[in-house]
Structures are given as C-alpha cells and as structure tokens.
Write a structure and sequence with these properties.
By secondary structure, the protein is α/β, with parallel strands linked by helices. 43% of the residues lie in helices and 17% in strands. It has 17 helices and 14 strands. The strands form two sheets. The protein has an eight-stranded mixed beta sheet with strand order 3-2-1-4-5-6-7-14, sandwiched between helices. The protein has a six-stranded parallel beta sheet with strand order 10-9-8-11-12-13, with helices on both faces. The protein starts with 7 loop residues before the first strand and ends with a strand.
Amino acid sequence: MVAANADSLSVLISAGEASGDRHAAGLMEAAARLTGERKRVRFFGLGGDAMAAAGLEPVAHSDEVAVVGIVEVVRELPRIRRVFRKLLLATETRRPSLAVLVDFPDFNLRLARRLRRRGIPVLYYVSPQVWAWRRRRVRTITRLVDRMLVLFPFEVEVYRGRELHVDHVGHPLVDDVPELESAWDRQEGVPERPMLALLPGSRNSEVRRILPPMLRAAAELIGTAERAGRVRLILAQTVDPELVRRLIASGPLDGDELDVVRADRFAAVAGSHLALCASGTATLEVGLLGTPMVVVYRVSPLTYAVGRLLVDLPFVSLVNLVLGRQVVPELLQAEADHERMAAAASRLLSRRNRIDAMRAALAELRPALGASGASERAAGCLLDELGLLEEPGERRGREGATRR
C-alpha cells in the first residue's frame, strides 16, 4: 500500500482498446466520487476518449495500439514500441504512486515488468484470459502484479494458491448497459420488415475483415424492396470513419438501407430484431439488452492457426462462456462468410419460438455477471492501495468485493 502524504497523487493508467477505455473511465469517475474534494488522484497515461472525458492526462491515445492478431501486431510494432517508450518516459518524469493496467495483456504485462524494475506497484484491472489460453502466464502475473481485480467469479479460482491479492469486483457492464424495451416486446410473431444491427468490432483490423461479409449478409436478409427491412451499423468511436466509408461504398447496401450509428448504440441495438456481432465485449452488451444475435469472428490465418493450438475452450463468445452453454450461434473464420451469416440469422428470424428461447436464456446473463457497483468496488480497491480510504464511510466502494 502507498502512503498518502499529499493532497494529490499521480497514477499511471494504461488501457489499449475500446472496452478497456470504458472500464478505466468508469474506475476513474468512481474514484473521483469516492474521494470528493478532500483528496484527488491525477491519472496520466494511455487511453481513449472516455478516459479523456474522465480526466486522463494523455500520453498516447489507445487508437495507436489497438490491433488484434499476430500479423497485424507485427505490422504496427514500430508504432506500438513508440507508445511504450513514451509511457516509460512519462513514468520517469511523473514518478507515479501506483500503476493501473487495464486488460490488454500483451502490452500491459510487458509494461508491468518495466514498472516492477522501477519499484512502482501495479494494480491490474480486468484479468488477462489466462483461463482460456497461456495458463503459464499466471506465474508471470503473480510475479509482476501486486493486486488483481477480476470481473468474473470463476477467475478467482485461477489464482488460488498464488501469492497474489485477488478481488472479484463484478462486471461494469451490469451498470453501463441499461434495461431497455426490446423490438421484440412490441412484435407479435416474426417481423415482415426486420431491423438488423451490425457490430463489426472496435479495432480497424477487425472491421476490415468482418464488415464486408456482414454487409453482404445483411443485404440478403433484408430482402427485396417490397419487403425491405433496415440495417444499423453500430460503430465504436475507435473505428476509422474513412475506412468504414470505403467499405460501405464497395458493399451492396445504399444510404436508404443503412444507418450508421455512433451514439446511443444501446437504444439502437435494443430496437433491432437481430444482431450480427463480432466476438468480444460487445456480445455481452447485446446479450444484456436481450437482442438475439449471431456471433462471428475472423482473424488472419496465422493468428487463427496459433490460437487453435493455444486455446482450450468450448466457446468463443463471452455470452456462451458466462452462461456455460451454447445460447448464441458462433461462426468463426471460414464459416464467417456472408452465406452462413445470412442462413444462421434467417433460421432465427423465421421462428418466434427460437427467438423467445434465446431471449429467455439471455435474461440469465445480467444476474450471472454479478451485482451492480463494479466500478465503485474497483475504485475502492484502487484507493485502498493508495492509502486514501481513511474513513469507514469511504469503504463503501469495496462492499461486495470477493477477496482471495
């Protein structure tokens, strides 16, 4: 624990992709609420727009490092290394009391190693998915990390028997994703004119691979002009709009059939009858909103080949993993073509009983993710590490956390 000797403490924070940016922003905002005006934590480091709005003093933007896949990482390695060096230089200058590393393990665990050499304690928020692959990383994490905050209760067991302080704080999406009226609540039977939502991922490399077949599948699904539905393309703020414009221009849908949504994405998804969704945190968002979905994913052939050797899981989507069974269909790699996407979606849209069964299963997701207040609990752990929880009333941020 860091001794709190000043009215303002400096904390390095690093989040390298859209979901991490949102989780980190929630943590920062909760820390500000818990400390009030008496003491202040000043965050600097790597993050996105949400963290900037929460008060981050940016060293670099998460867009600069947000890539997925072996081939893509190799291509962007010089830029990633530049960001890494900028963070280390800022750390030397600012001498933070603590580092908060959020998910993004390939980058953040390397950063943790360098921080350890500098004597900076590390709190890791959102455990790397060591339960899915590279279990040997548990030993590395135990050596480099002082405190681990996990989102899922089963992750506590992964670290059992290790000399590592682990807290289960719950999932921030329980609070972030509202309970909204679904398009199916107003729909009897199956829709003549379906509304489709496309969520092709938060990284440009994902969107480049996944959006073209999604657009072709959507064109088949909405049907002919006299029976036409509509398509909503739900885009993360991290996605390059020029890239999307080019992909749409070369696709089969025109402006009358396609709405591009960057704000109010939850309402747009809830108001859709079906989503084609890239595997990732977005599947949990769609599931919490109760919108039926087909999960798709495509990476480079090399990345997929290596992943098959390392990953030992029955499912890819977080929805199926959390619920412990296949609730939503998954189309991966070669199967994630437009014909199979359209066929899987058509099977759902053609039978109301299939839709109702999936929605009933998705209703189990919110209680499975834990109680509300995850960001407050995570912030309570952060402030505890900084020695700022001096009064009993301030400890409310840690209520409900499970400590190993």
